[in-house]
Amino acid sequence: MTVGAVTGPFSKEGMVCQYPPMMIPSNVGAGIIMGPTILGRCTSQHPMQKLFPMTGKVVLQTAANVGFNLHLFLLGIRMDASMLKKVGGSAALIGTMGYAMPFTFAGLTYYTVSHVMTLDRTITTSIPFIIAIGSISTFPVITSHLADLQILNSELGRLATYISIIGDLWSFGTILTTTALGLIEHGSKWMSFWALFWITIFVTTIIFIFRPFIIWLTKSNSQEETMRETHFIIVLVIVMACGFSAEVIGLHAAFGSFLLGVALPDGPPLGSALVQKLDTIATGLLLPVFIAISGLQTDLLSAAGGHSSAITELFIVLGYIGKFMGTLLPALFCGLPYWEAVTLALIMCCKGVIEVAAYIMWKDAGIIDDQVFALLLVTMLIVSGVARPMVAHLYDPAKRYMAYGRRTMLESHNSIQLRILICVHQEDNVPTILSLLDASNSTRLTPISIFVLHLMELTGSAAAVLVPHLRTQSQSTPNATGAEHTVSAFRQFEQQHQGNVAVQHFTAIAPYASMHNDICSIAQDKRTTIVILPFHKRWAIDGRVGLSNPSIRTVNIKVIKKAPCSVGVLIDRGQIGGKWSSLTSRSSYRVGLLFFSGADDLEAFAYGRRMAQHPHVNLTVIRFLHECQTHEKKLEDELICEYRANALMMGKNRYKEKIVGDGVETTQAIHAMEGDFDLVIVGRYHEPNSPFIRGLSTEWCECPELGLIGDILASSDSQFSVLVVQQQPDGSVPPGMLSTVTSKNKSFGSKLASEFSDGEDFTPDYSKLVLEVGE
Do residues 270 and 215 lie in contact, with contact meaning Cβ atoms separated by under 8 Å? Predict the structure, then answer.
């Protein structure tokens, strides 16, 4: 083996750390195996004492509790209290019924059973807590399940998020009420007063002292990219102090950490920085220890058999049934389709780390015994383990994006308003996109509606966001963010083309894994003709790849598969050629269109044909022909003949034909175009047996989502930008789909979509167009 340097282009690889989506079941299962159920029972005490000595258990339990406190702190940071303003009537009704019905089911059953038979003292003590835990669906747990299922920012995911917030409000209200009543009943009035007094002092200290101090630390660190280590240590000490103080006044230590997290602002810069520093150690390392310890404490054999086991399991199951029915029935009443309502009910039945912590806390306090603890934990694992795969099978957000009509460039008449969805990840994407829009020939007769979707990764927050950007927010300031600069640039573009272009802005903050849901949702709701996606690679000024983001590539691949309209991937090399300037200030903007054959090439041709009408765009259509090709494709020939006639009349556009024998000659012809164009447009898909790509293998493709020709253009050293176009596939309107759409589904979708509208009229002015047509 020879070791040496490898010449040619290369990209640095980075290690990516991910948490498995089924972390709780796997860790609990590991704990059960190592605990008294299997290894602890099958082996002698001596090896188990060596593996888990008493001193080691104390250290392990301490580390687990610290990890749980930090995890609760991070969950609190990710919560956004302003989301309460967005909760609608449907979510409030479903959340209230989902909380109340488990209490009703299990409470009536408990009343009946207690009058029919005599229950053990252990059962009567634990049943109220079993009923209470069956009624809750906590916000952190539900959002984590939604994120794992990649439906956090789907229509159903947002509804489930709002429902969990309502459930948490009812839970906190019930806990405070029962705590106060318990103190009054079992203690003196002064004891109740002092307990409430110290809790009030604790909450006030967090809100009015710790919160402003930590925010002040962040502001003093605003000029640096990351939080200073000293500031981070100070915040960590405050978190631990809040946990200790909560324990002193009679609350759980994790509640103090959680309350501090809720008080701090989510998202960047503070929330994102703290999550970035703490998430790996807390969620990735210490939290699994906490979960595994719950399995170590579980003895499944103690839960098997017996009269008390059956009674306890009855109430546990009734809690899940009440939660399921309490979500399903009001969801149907609010207009959800049946299977979506079933899916929502299954989501709300899922439990997580909060419930596991409650089980451990009750067991340590002697409220429940080993038998009840084992039954609660095992039932939770079974229900959550069954519900999650069923949700993944029943609910596919892409079904909503199935178009109910063809929306393509080719089938849109030139005089009809062109509706384009522009996706922007970073400010650097904007110049070349503006050049593309400028070349798209916006006039009074061919107006354009542009929907700009600024995409941001969800960090430091639990709930995905999709909101419109109001015009009052678009003022440019010296300290403006990249998103504000993007808005300002598109507003300026709109003013330059006043009456011909209308722009509406949206901001989507979501995990990369489900970001395509927001893109497809906007494309569906706004009936766009084409979605423009930025390529995941960016080039430096010297022509080398400066930055590559695999997550953006994943988003692009999913949009290409699921978009309800045509899609264009824009490979931006505008940074090489310079900054954007209006086409009116240039002598010409050179566009090359590579035409082979197929639906995607026809879609690319339709876009190029529109550009050809622009007075400052010089379009060159290069049609590739095979040596033995026979002209049998009437539509393609008709469009080409029409273009050639118009090009001859206008004088500035051109048409060429290239005769090639195989893929090698096609590649050589493409490389020979170096320096001829500012932008090259090409279709994405070509038949595998096409003679134009014969000899080219997809195994060597660096970006197969662009197609073979698109990958060649993206991998070349050319300095022109590239637009790879895919036409909306015919299969996006499945057979019988139109007949299955109910009015309830549409009306409920409009309810949720209405909160994304800012009430602006973004339709271009057609008054002059109507006058001309009338005359």
Answer: yes
